[in-house]
Design goal:
about 650 residues, alpha+beta, Rossmann fold, eight-stranded mixed β-sheet, four-stranded antiparallel β-sheet, about 15% helix, about 35% strand, globular, disordered N terminus
């Protein structure tokens, strides 16, 4: 249910040269349109280099959400339309391409087949035609003869099988390397291809709950000779195994409460109260990499402390690290090209773009910015980090964005602005304070925004993540409610005009907060869960037992599922609801929204329901993003006008 934060695309806007205007909070004229937010829907992932060229995946709303594999040199997609480089393993997918010399291997989204393509040729060739199979997270054997991959077998949809396999690129034969566990991820080879590392885990655990790391010894044909466990367990999450240039295996483990980096002997590279990894929603994530300088070996690593990202340069031999002083607060991917670092990064006032960094001189080279210019700083609301008191004597966190528009002088306004509480998905995810056009859309219209990282969010260590264990629908609601009330108490927002919005798991929290509390006066649910029991019965394998740890065992504790499901308590709901749903959503099927909409109509709750054809879990099309946002704005204004 994760929607990791997207930090992408914006334009400069001139500020009107005129006296300050007069209009109520929430009704300000803004130069930031829904079209601009839709354009920001361009998503970047998996920046990488191959033989001197830099590549990344770019999801393009204007091309119906197609995932294009883009070459930095000319900004062109090297895979032509209608091909889309995207896998659906675990439903959320992940890295689905790999290079070997002059050849690209990739998964095409529409048919999930594996293709190959010569880089100097226009059209790909079908490599593996296996309708029931899905592939992701590739690594190519140095001989070029074999491709190691995670494979998901849907021959029997009632019993989906996951495994680690080797694909013979000449004979097309698929050989199993590891099977028997529910999930596998992160196959990684050393340079000599004599060692293969991977992780696995079993339900009900998710990969941030507990995984195990294995090391396989291979022969010259990539066949396993022996396997041994290196680290991990049911209460230890081990992620991102990676071999250094000298052949040492490293990994991230949260056994001390935070994901820190260790070598294969179990020795900590450093210990720091910050996370050097991120919950594994998408296969192929990479939060650290290796480089050498003057004969010394270093790691460059992203780490997260209280939901803000930093970049560290770690001296492997001396076990020391330096936090690099560069003007960014969010990083989503790291890769090394020679002695430079390639990064997907964002700042307070600039959305995701791609840079090259010399970590020793701190010299930054912009590689790609989808926007030519930036918003005027006079228009950008910079967030304030707020730690607020919540239930059981604990504190939680939010980023507060005040209304901001240079054409309106808030000192002359009576009253307080309406508040919109943003609830992230996952729920094991988090928001960062980096630029979001979707936030500025609201603040430039006179709304205040609270982006809440409720208990259960990542970015604050394992103990904070574990707050949501058997408490989903309780802790998240309490934190969203208490965050909003704290802002009311501080005199920052209008207590009678508070909205809540979220997608996926955030959509569930939105609906549950409206149902089980009176703090919020209106809400917008994007593909949110309405019936937890239905979700437990009808979702992909990856999340099929996720709710065991979030709520309780199903079906043994079905009464608890019903008690926490908004669908069964519409009688308690007295506030308007906007429902937005993708017709082809396989994670939270549209039946959830259908049933809730009918229940709202039956009770007479003011509601609207927008069902978008061709959309799945997370809207990708520009027109969908635009229509949804415009509908949400109109819905709030209609409701708040009555308050």
């Amino acid at each position: 249910m994760e929607k990791k934060p997207t930090r992408i695309f914006f334009l400069i806007l001139g500020v009107f040269v005129m006296p300050h205007l007069s209009a109520s909070y929430g009704l300000w004229n803004s130069p930031i349109s829904a079209d601009m937010v839709a354009e920001q829907g361009i998503r970047f992932s998996y920046v990488d280099s191959h033989e001197g060229e830099i590549y990344w995946v770019e999801s393009r709303p204007k091309e119906m959400g197609r995932s294009a594999l883009v070459r930095q040199r000319d900004g062109q997609s090297i895979v032509p339309e209608p091909f889309s480089v995207r896998t659906t393993v675990h439903e959320y997918g992940g890295k689905s391409f790999a290079f070997y010399k002059d050849t690209l291997y990739f998964v095409n989204f529409k048919d999930q087949h594996l293709y190959s393509k010569k880089l100097d040729e226009k059209l790909p060739s079908l490599l593996i035609d296996a309708p029931s199979k899905r592939f992701a997270d590739f690594v190519v054997h140095p001989s070029g003869k074999y491709l190691f991959s995670i494979m998901e077998d849907h021959t029997d949809e009632a019993d989906v099988r996951n495994s680690l396999v080797k694909i013979d690129l000449e004979t097309k034969e698929i050989t199993t390397i590891a099977e028997g566990h529910d999930f596998y991820a992160a196959p990684r080879l050393n340079r000599e291809a004599t060692k293969l590392a991977y992780i696995f885990w079993d339900r009900p655990n998710m990969p941030w709950d507990g995984t195990e790391l294995c090391l396989v010894t291979l022969d010259s044909q990539g066949r396993p000779l022996s396997t041994k466990k290196i680290a991990g367990g049911k209460e230890e999450s081990v992620l991102e195994p990676l071999f250094s240039k000298k052949g040492t295996l490293f990994y991230a483990s949260d056994k001390t409460g935070y994901w820190n980096l260790y070598d294969e002997t179990g020795k900590a590279l450093i210990t720091h109260k910050a996370d050097f990894s991120y919950p594994l929603w998408n296969l192929g994530q990479k939060y650290y990499d290796f480089l050498e300088k003057d004969g010394k070996e270093y790691i460059v690593a992203i780490y997260t402390e209280k939901a803000t990202d930093y970049l560290a340069l770690i001296d492997i031999k001396n076990h020391t690290f330096e936090t690099l002083n560069i003007p960014y607060i969010s990083f989503e991917q790291v890769a090394v090209q020679d002695d430079k670092v390639l990064l997907l990064t964002a700042s307070y006032d600039e959305s995701t773009h791609i840079i090259s960094l010399d970590p020793f001189t701190k010299e930054i080279t912009p590689l790609y910015k989808p926007q030519k210019q930036r918003l005027s700083k006079d228009l950008v609301s910079i967030p304030e980090t707020i730690e607020f008191p919540t239930a059981d004597g604990k504190t939680s966190f939010l980023f507060y964005y005040a209304p901001k528009n240079p054409n309106y002088d808030t000192k002359t306004f009576d009253g307080k602005p309406p508040l919109i509480v943003f609830v992230h998905g996952g729920p094991t995810s988090h928001e960062t304070p980096s630029f979001q056009m979707g936030v500025q859309f609201w603040t430039s219209r006179g709304f205040a925004v609270a982006d809440v990282n409720y208990g259960g969010s990542s970015g604050y260590g394992r103990e904070y993540r574990n707050r949501l264990r058997r408490k989903w629908g309780v802790v998240d609601i309490e934190d969203c409610k208490n965050g909003a009330l704290y802002l009311v108490k501080k005199g920052l927002v209008d207590k009678d005009r508070i909205a809540i919005r979220g997608g996926s798991a955030g959509g569930y929290t939105t609906l549950a907060a409206l149902t089980f509390s009176d703090t919020f006066h209106v809400g917008a649910s994007y593909y949110g869960v309405t019936d937890l029991a239905l979700l437990a019965q009808d979702t992909g394998k990856f999340e099929s037992r996720y709710l065991d740890n979030l709520i309780g065992k199903y079906p043994e504790e079905i009464e608890l599922y019903h008690a926490l499901s908004p669908l069964y308590h519409v009688d308690k709901l007295n506030h308007p609801v906007l429902l937005l749903q993708g017709e082809e959503d396989m994670v939270v099927p549209k039946e959830q929204a259908d049933l809730f909409y009918k229940a709202l109509l039956k009770k007479g709750i003011p509601t609207e329901y927008l069902l978008f054809e061709g959309e799945q879990h997370g809207f990708r099309k520009a027109d969908t993003i635009k229509r949804a946002l415009e509908a949400e704005l109109a819905f709030y204004n209609k409701i708040f006008a009555k308050n």
